[in-house]
Amino acid sequence: MQKGNGDYMLRNIIKYLIALAAVGLLSILYNTYYMGILFLTLAAIPFLMFALLSYLYGSVKAELVSVIHVAKKGEVIPVSVQVDNPTIFPATYIKIYLTYKNSYSDQIYKKNFMVSVDAKTKASIICNLYSEYAGNLEVTLNGIRIYDYLRFFSMKKRKKTELTVAILPTYYELQQNQLLNLHNNIVESDYYSPVKSGDDPSEVFAIREYREGDRQQRIHWKLSRKQDQLMIKEFSDPLNCSILLFVDLCVPENMNRMLFMDSMLECVLSLSYSFLLAGQMHYFTWYEERHGVCRRIRVSQEKDLFEAVDGLLHVLPYSSLTDALTAYQAQYPKEQYSNLIFVTGEQPRKRTETLSLLKAMNRQVIYLGEIDNQPGTKYFPNEVIRRIGEVGVSLASVDAHHVRRDMEQLRLE
Q1: Which CATH number fits domain 176-185+240-409: 3.40.1010.10, 3.30.110.40, 1.20.1250.20, 3.40.50.410?
Q2: What's the whole-model pTM score?
Q3: What average pLDDT is seen over the chain?
Q4: In principle, which of 102, 140, 299, 385 could form an S-S bond with 135, CB 3.0–4.6 Å?
């Protein structure tokens, strides 16, 4: 597009020079006052155009404004470029340079277009963008190029402005019969209900006056003597946070990174969302290579899930050299769980030994890849299934191209 504009400007200059030469020749042949004035006026036009262009260049400003900050994948994303022309001259030719990219990809897309802005006017130009994959859409206004009225000259303002639009992944509720037997296995918990008392004597929920039927063992004798009446200790109710949902963000070789991340987010967020709707508190964790630590979020309410979504949209995938499970084990060496769900794009045999060292009653690997319509464990050699079964790990698979279909057939163990 830039080359086309350059050719157009060159043609305009050539036409102008031909016209100037013709008028100059006529003024010599006829040698009249009027022809001389016409020639001088025509000769002065480029200087006038350049002066007006310089004035507009110093006065016209542009900035990038997001109409929305969050969108679903596949939706139209309107982005506004606001151009302010405070001068008394209209800016008839302004070229806007936009680039945008998904944070999970290195591919940059360009979008350039021409606009006109009247004198003393602020104009908003809407540019509709689109992303078929989840992630952060990074939009950059690289600058504007202003042309004079005859398009002899142009000047580019290179001041950059940037904005980010979060493209949310798709996630949905799984059927109750697909989920774990959530409440049967409860391990020791450090989290207690803020609204309900229970039977855990390691934590006191509240102190209240004695009521008929209260057990003698719960009388707080020291406080009762001080208050001169019987006071009862209410114990806390431990919350069952015994499920660990671990997301391995290592992108398999020869797989599109945006497809992998989009499919991974759809898979793990659907699991977390389903646990949340079922009233099952759980840990949601992933490895952040930039900081060298595992980030863990305890999901007990909707805002926790949104925090996890935001965190995953800002983290970048890593290479196969990173052992996220080992990093987690080093960070939380004494934790134990009723269920460990490890979602990965790597072949399961690579992490079998590390998985077996984590303290969990049940361990399950969900393999995400381009499986070519071979559902379940049929995709894996019998030797792989046998080896991971020997260390107490079950196996399931999800095709990255048909996540919802396979998630609806998934059974957690």
Answers
A1: 3.40.50.410
A2: 0.74
A3: 81
A4: 102
